[in-house]
Amino acid sequence: MHLTAINLPELFVKLWRGVIRADNTHIRDCEHAFLVGPAWKEHGALVAGTRPYLPGSFGRVPRNPQLKINSGYKAWEYMLYLWALGPAVFRPYLPDRYWKNFCKLVKSVRIVQQRRILVADLIQAHKDLVEWEEDYENLYYQRDPARLHYVRPSIHSIVHTPMETYRFGPLNLVAQWTLENTIGGLVREIKQHSNPFANLSECTVRRAQLNALKAMMPGLVPKKPFPRASVVLPCGFVLLPAVDDHLHLLPPLEYNALKAHVVKITSPQLHVLEEDIFIQRWASLLLPTRQRARSHWKETERKSQNIRNSRNVKLAFNGEPRYGEVQYYFRYAIHGQAHTLAMVSLYTYPDLDLLRDSSNTLYACQYTGSAGLVVVDVGDIISVVAMPPLPIKPEEVQYSGYFYVAEKPFLETMQFTVDDDD
Questions:
Q1: How far apart are CA 321 and CA 265, in angstroms?
Q2: Are strands 282-286 and 278-279 parallel, antiparallel or unpaired?
Q3: In degrees to the nearest 10, what's the CA dihedral of 258, 264, 266, 272?
Q4: Which of 62, 68, 150, 319 suits a disulfide with 81, CB 3.0-4.6 Å?
Q5: CA angle 13, 19, 23 (to 5 degrees)
Q6: Which 8-state DSSP code applies to residue 8?
Q7: Measured between alpha carbons, how far apart are the two ends of the chain, in Å?
Q8: What domain of life does the native source organism fall in (predicted)?
Q9: Is residue 376 classed as helix, strand or coil in its secondary structure?
Q10: Are the beta carbons of 35 and 16 closer than 8 angstroms?
Q11: Do 207 and 325 sit in the same domain of this protein?
Q12: Whole-Å CA distances, 143 to 137, 200, 417
């Protein structure tokens, strides 16, 4: 936990701010101090501006680092800041060689944070980290004794994570998140400040007894009921209201998307679509990851300034991972069997130049709107993702209007503690 959530993020942010510098070197003489003055202020506003695009299921969003980096910046904020948003929000400020070096680290960290990891991915992560460490030393340390403190123990430790993962299994399973959350909960239960340690012991014993009872008799824990009109689907999916109070006529583009889906899964001779199709729209879907995937239909009606976009999803489409914005969910009968479907506007394929230069960490694409409408089965939806606007350099007019993908770190690990994003 501390290696990727605190140690490495703090090191890089301090290096790029010029806080860490060689002996007897003024901050303006540090060639790696890119986030200073107006650039640091602009970067901080850029990070804070991603808040509306990060789903509620992402938890605490990164605050403006220019204002809050020295005021208790949380480990989870660093996780999203560096490993989810980092390749995009640092790109306008870092020279290409520094940015590419950082992206190679991001790629490897994302691999070792997964709950299920292929051996081939671990081998690739180890290779990338060895190359990254050598390039890091050439960029920052430069074999200069006055810069030896740039190579902190965390620089060496991260290189060992793929090998340790191979020996012990995914390292996030033994991370400190659960323990530290437990400690925080127990501290909040202390009421007798005159004798806090005895009080803490009693709270701990009581919690252990309750947990043992819940494990032996799961029926003691009441399940939170789903809202009225919800539909529980196979494999852990749940359709959630709001629901149309009247039938909705499919417009031509949406009709064609449904027709293409029906043709794909069955012969058109076996299922002929009516000229006019009326459906009942649903607003959101609860995924097995405990994320709530909302829809453009209802989410855009909410006027609160604190709304966080939760309608962009990662899905398996034609056997490959794609990203799209859900317009709404609906149910439709094919061969007399009800199918739960989603009307999705797909984003384009990623820009290959950015994807290659970023070591496959920056997936930048364009929103297609009604031109990219497709119908997918809700079982093909994998997770809820963030799609913030891509920050660009002044000369990069070709990337105007692009968005980039930010996925929640080690989602499978956190699914047991993530509640509904309300």
A1: 19
A2: unpaired
A3: 40
A4: 62
A5: 130
A6: H
A7: 27
A8: Eukaryota
A9: strand
A10: yes
A11: no
A12: 7, 50, 45
* pLDDT confidence of residue 252: 93
pLDDT value at 27 more than 80: no
Q: Angle at CA 229, nearest 5°, toward 225 and 230?
A: 55
Residue of higher predicted confidence among 405 and 189: 405
Domain with 207, as residue range(s), is 177-220
- Residue 102: DSSP 8-state: H
If you average pLDDT over each of 66-75, 135-144, 330-339, 374-383, which comes out highest?
374-383
* Rounded average pLDDT over 392-416: 80
Has residue 274 been placed in a domain? Answer: yes
> Of 155, 188, 220, which residue constitutes the final position of a domain?
220
Those residues with Cβ within 8 angstroms of residue 10's Cβ, 6 or more apart along the chain or in another chain:
78
Rounded to an integer, what distance in angstroms lies between the CA atom of residue 262 and that of residue 268? 7
Q: What is the pTM of this model?
A: 0.88
Domain match, 83 and 116 both: yes
Claim to verify: residue 140 and residue 51 sit in the same structural domain = yes
| Judgement on whether residues 7 and 133 belong to the same structural domain of the protein | yes
Residue 278 belongs to domain with CATH number: 2.30.30
Strand partners, 322: 315
Residue 329 CA to residue 333 CA, distance in Å, equals 14
Q: In terms of DSSP bridges, do strands 282-286 and 238-243 run parallel, antiparallel, or are they unpaired?
A: antiparallel
Kind and range of the H or E element at 380? none
What would the pLDDT profile of 276-316 be if each residue is shown by its tens digit?
899 999 999 999 988 999 999 999 888 777 789 999 999 99
Distances (CA, A) of 403 to 201, 233, 328, 332, 349: 50, 32, 21, 32, 11
418 pLDDT exceeds 50?
no
For residues 122 and 136, what is the distance between their CA atoms, to the nearest angstrom?
20
Contact assessment for residue 230 and residue 263, using Cβ atoms and an 8 Å cutoff: no
Helix (H) or strand (E) run with residue 411 in it: helix 411-414
Query: Residue 203: inside a domain, yes or no?
Result: yes
Q: Are residues 12 and 76 in the same domain?
A: yes
